[in-house]
Amino acid sequence: MKALLLENIHPVAVENLERAGFEVELRSKSLSEDELVADLPGVTLLGIRSNTHITPRVLDAATDLKAIGCFCIGTNQVDLVAAGERGVAVFNAPYSNTRSVVELVIGYIISLARRLPEKTEKMHAGVWDKSAKGSHEVRGRTLGIIGYGNIGTQLSNVAEALGFYVIFYDIADRLAHGNARRMKSLDALLAEADVVSIHIDGRPGNLGMFGEEQFAKMKPRSLFINAARGFLVDNDALRKHIESGHIAGAALDVFPIEPKAQGDAFESPLQGLDNVILTPHVGGSTQEAQEEIGWFVSGKLGDFIRSGSTALSVNLPAVQPPPLGAGARLALLHDSVPGVLAELNNLLAAEGVNVTGQYLATAGETGFVVTDVTDVPPTTLEKIAGNPHTRWVRAYPA
């Protein structure tokens, strides 16, 4: 079995997959759609980060592909519906780089509040500008967090420890941490926050959610942070409000269009502005986070291939069976229609196969059942595969 890992995924992932019996190819850059179509036949596992996009055309060409690992938080670069329809499991790392992103955001806020980008630029130019003008402490300021998930909540905790008052807005019901306050609307948050930081996901409905209208509603001389998704924010509108002085500073780690390879040219309407920090999508790019992500995602891919576990898959029903003991295991991905499980068990009984454990989950039109049995005669697999509602069936150990 072959695993292809793109975009400089941490070597710990290579080690994990090689121990699991995979031949691993590691590449430093992302691949275009045409390159993926040409290179994926024969690949069982694909590892990507945020710059490689998996389309239905790519999935149609990847006839041997069983799973995709997104070695990052986001999965909007993968057509999850198309992958699910083809039975390709997708996994990500929803927690592994949380702390790294939070620390970067805290660094942004302090740097912008003290206007450090301007200070360091002048020092490099040989200008000594020792002045407190425009420089502020963050203690006692109000931080407004848009999106109170894994990153938003940890940012809330760290910021409060630094002396911030924290407010947040989320469309989902979220438990407030510490003394943080939930705001009833985004407008209410924007009117009160001295710093606004976005931490929402990349679902299509969030495209362009923060633009001219939202910037106009922010407090005068407030700060703006985006370390979530580049396409959430209208950067032309942000430039206008920075140039007018309404927004005192901004920091961005993500952009609507990002270079695909190290050293490629980068352009943004925010270049050249005072008190603006631009970083190349490095929120999760610490050695600690990348190692944790490499370990976590490669482990999920290995568990799926070795034992049929779909725990924390983002597009298939989640089943986490116990470790495989004596005997064998069947994993069946099927259409979620009445009678499939009964047909499976009737067939196993007719074949004289004894069931020792069974684990089922459904999601939408898809069902996934893992069945532990005494053994799996080849004829049994063939009959299960022949059912019109079977998408795929696999036996373990292979």
From TrEMBL:
<feature type="domain" description="D-isomer specific 2-hydroxyacid dehydrogenase catalytic">
    <location>
        <begin position="4"/>
        <end position="315"/>
    </location>
</feature>
<keyword id="KW-0520">NAD</keyword>
<dbReference type="InterPro" id="IPR050857">
    <property type="entry name" value="D-2-hydroxyacid_DH"/>
</dbReference>
<dbReference type="InterPro" id="IPR036291">
    <property type="entry name" value="NAD(P)-bd_dom_sf"/>
</dbReference>
<feature type="domain" description="D-isomer specific 2-hydroxyacid dehydrogenase NAD-binding">
    <location>
        <begin position="107"/>
        <end position="283"/>
    </location>
</feature>
<feature type="domain" description="Acetolactate synthase small subunit-like ACT">
    <location>
        <begin position="330"/>
        <end position="375"/>
    </location>
</feature>
<dbReference type="InterPro" id="IPR029752">
    <property type="entry name" value="D-isomer_DH_CS1"/>
</dbReference>
<protein>
    <submittedName>
        <fullName>D-3-phosphoglycerate dehydrogenase</fullName>
        <ecNumber>1.1.1.95</ecNumber>
    </submittedName>
</protein>
<dbReference type="GO" id="GO:0051287">
    <property type="term" value="F:NAD binding"/>
</dbReference>
<dbReference type="Pfam" id="PF22629">
    <property type="entry name" value="ACT_AHAS_ss"/>
</dbReference>
<dbReference type="Pfam" id="PF00389">
    <property type="entry name" value="2-Hacid_dh"/>
</dbReference>
<comment type="similarity">
    <text>Belongs to the D-isomer specific 2-hydroxyacid dehydrogenase family.</text>
</comment>
<dbReference type="InterPro" id="IPR045865">
    <property type="entry name" value="ACT-like_dom_sf"/>
</dbReference>
<keyword id="KW-0560">Oxidoreductase</keyword>
<dbReference type="GO" id="GO:0004617">
    <property type="term" value="F:phosphoglycerate dehydrogenase activity"/>
</dbReference>
<keyword id="KW-0028">Amino-acid biosynthesis</keyword>
<dbReference type="InterPro" id="IPR006139">
    <property type="entry name" value="D-isomer_2_OHA_DH_cat_dom"/>
</dbReference>
<dbReference type="GO" id="GO:0047545">
    <property type="term" value="F:(S)-2-hydroxyglutarate dehydrogenase activity"/>
</dbReference>
<dbReference type="InterPro" id="IPR054480">
    <property type="entry name" value="AHAS_small-like_ACT"/>
</dbReference>
<dbReference type="Pfam" id="PF02826">
    <property type="entry name" value="2-Hacid_dh_C"/>
</dbReference>
<dbReference type="InterPro" id="IPR006140">
    <property type="entry name" value="D-isomer_DH_NAD-bd"/>
</dbReference>
<comment type="pathway">
    <text>Amino-acid biosynthesis.</text>
</comment>
<dbReference type="GO" id="GO:0006564">
    <property type="term" value="P:L-serine biosynthetic process"/>
</dbReference>
